[in-house]
Amino acid sequence: MTHLQQFQKEFEREAIVMRKMLSIIPNDRYDWRPHPKSMSIRQLATHIAEIPLWFGMVLNTSGLDFAVEEYKPKEINDTAALIAYLEENIEQARKDLAAGNENTLDEIWTMRSGEQVFSSDPKRDAIRMSFSQIIHHRAQLGVYLRLLDIPIPGTYGPSADDMSF
User: I want to staple 52 with a disulfide (CB 3.0 to 4.6 A). Which of 43, 60, 78, 89 is the partner?
Assistant: First the structure.
């Protein structure tokens, strides 16, 4: 199995879990945040839904410079719109991973803001970091939802809310 085939397989598992987590956000909680320094649920959920687009960005560019490319998140105001956005991005990620070139995975991909370099790694590692970002922010959303007393679905097995003891 090639690296890209492995990434495709892993992405399909992660897509299921992203969909489960994002679909339970109550429409009236999009502006909630657990702390003034924290992202709102809207910001966090939108970010989770957009991360699948990173696969194509990594595969098709040599890097990202935040000083040059302005970040403009999509405006999401309800769970139906969030899930529709996620589904668009899942489909695009599938296409990007399927069209990816295994021979480019050793090329360096750099994330920076002008002269400040945040990371400069082989594309293979940048894709792995993208998966880590999905998992990290999805877990962060799970904490937000737990604080709001919203039952959390299982991710890689049942959650405490899925279990009957």
Answer: 89
What would the pLDDT profile of 93-129 be if each residue is shown by its tens digit? 999 999 999 999 999 999 999 999 999 999 999 999 9
User: Quick check: 109 and 122 in contact, CB under 8 A?
Assistant: yes
> 141: closest CA among 55, 23, 54?
23
Strands 108-113 and 63-65: parallel
Domains of the chain: 3-147 (1.20.120.450)
Number of neighbouring beta carbons within 10 Å of residue 155 = 18
Helix or strand holding residue 41 (H, E): helix 41-50
Q: pLDDT by residue (tens digit) across 14-61?
A: 999 999 999 999 999 999 999 999 999 999 999 999 999 999 999 999
